[in-house]
Structures are given as C-alpha cells and as structure tokens.
Amino acid sequence: MQQLGLVSISFRNLSPEEIIRKVKKAGLSCIEWGSDIHAPCDDNEKLKRIASLQNQYGISCCSYGTYFRLGVNDTEELQKYIDAAKILGTDVLRLWCGDKSTGEYCEDEENRLFDECKKASEIAEKNGVTLCLECHNGTYTELKEGAIKLMKVINSPALRMYWQPNQFTSHDENKRYARLLASFTKNIHVFNWTSTERFPLADAVYVWKEYLSYFNKNQTLLLEFMPDDSIYSLITEAESLRKIAE
C-alpha cells in the first residue's frame, strides 16, 4: 500500500511531538524528518525521543531529509547521517547533489562530482541504505538531463531520486521529467506552487493524478509545506493527498 506522509520542515516552528500528533490526526502514516531543526544528526537523545514518539503514536519515519550536499560536504561525514537515519528507523536519506545546475558544470567539475557520488553510493551500499537526490533548483539534478545522466553513470541501487514538480517550469516539462526519472524515484514531494505562490492542493488534484500516472505507485507521497504555512491546513491537504493517491 502506498504510504502518505508529511515533510517535517513544513512546520519548523513546531516540536516533533506536535507534528507527530497532527500527522496522526490527519490520517497520514509517515514523516520525513529534517536534519536542520527537528532531527539533528549529532543529537542522539533527540533522535531516540522521536523514535519513541513514533512508536507511541504508530507513525513511521519514511526518510531522513538531510541538507548534505554531495560534492560540497566531506563524503566521509555521510556516515553520521546514516547512523541518525537508522535511529529514526529509516533506510532512506534525502541529499542534494552539488551546488549549481547541470549546465553550469564544466567537464572536470562534473567528473569530480560523479566521483563523490560513487563514493557515497559505496558507503550507502555497505550500510544497507538508499541515498535519494532531490531535483532541487540550484543542484545538479535540477534538470532531467543531469538527473538521468547521473543515475546511469553511477548505476547503483543505493543511489536514487526524489521527484517534485518545478514551480518555475512548465507543466509539460515537469511531465517529461517525471516520465524519464519514474523508474529511479523513491519518494515524491507533493505541493501546489506556481512560481513563488502557493495554492491549496485541492486545486491541483487532476494535475497531480496526471503526474502520478508515470509512476508505479510504490513511491511514498509526502506533503511539503502548506499553502498558508498553517498546521490547521494539514487536515484538508491530507484529504486532497488521499484523492490524488486514489
């Protein structure tokens, strides 16, 4: 059954327990914890408290949302994020790849970045985890061409993708990205944005059903940010997410 959940950074101002309780009330089953505020990788006590709360409320951790940048941060430091993810109960970590878009890399820079991705994949394989790269603006996987090249060159089951629509590109281009990367995609961030404006997910149910037609429904769907940043909108956004997943 397809998992439906929330990205914790949607509510950076709330405590982990508040988020877990709201997720439970909204009828969602999992959380992607962010390493920046809620689940720092160097705070084992906090990580263990979150794991205990998850057990208490029957909520799982589907992924660990790190801000580790491959090719920028020291790859050897990845181990502490992997250890943190395991405390939270997940074997999926979200990373960013590089610090600029695909076309801005010269050949030497690209080769160095790919070398770091290979090292990271080997570390992940040894630890039994999967590293997933977000198709985030300002990273190597911003464009579908970079993402598919990276997946094919590294060719590791321990290196996969997240997918989300890019609010600054066209609907058709987002569909092309989804179709091309679907078989490499683990989790999907779900929202309804146009440029810098946010709208209720209910307004984009049809659009999202079209996006998801390219995927095999094994991906976890995660709400990322509310249209108004209010925790009280989580109930209605979760209802729209369930309609999308039908």
Query: Which regions are unreliable across 5 or more consecutive residues at pLDDT < 50?
Result: none
Tally of helical runs: 8
Q: Spell the H/E element sequence.
A: EHEHEHEHEHEHEEEHEH
The side-by-side strand order for the widest beta sheet comes to 1-2-3-4-5-6-7-10
Task: Give the helix level as a range of percent.
Answer: 25-40%
Distance between the termini: 11 Å
Shape: globular
Average pLDDT, all residues: 97
Work out the radius of gyration. 17 Å
Report the sheet with the most strands, covering strand number, pairing sense and barrel closure. 8 strands, parallel, barrel
SS strand fraction: 15-25%
Give the number of DSSP strands: 10
Helix-and-strand structural type: alpha/beta
Description:
The strands form 2 sheets. The protein has an 8-stranded parallel beta barrel, surrounded by 6 helices. The protein has 246 residues and is α/β, with parallel strands linked by helices. α5 (144-154) runs parallel beside α6 and α7 (205-212) crosses α8. The chain is globular and about 50 Å long. The longest helix is centred in the middle third of the chain and has 21 residues, at 107-127. The chain has helices at residues 16-25, 44-57, 78-88, 107-127, 144-154, 171-181, 205-212, 234-245; strands spanning 4-7, 30-34, 60-70, 92-97, 130-133, 159-163, 185-190, 193-194, 197-198, 220-223. 40% of the residues lie in helices and 20% in strands.
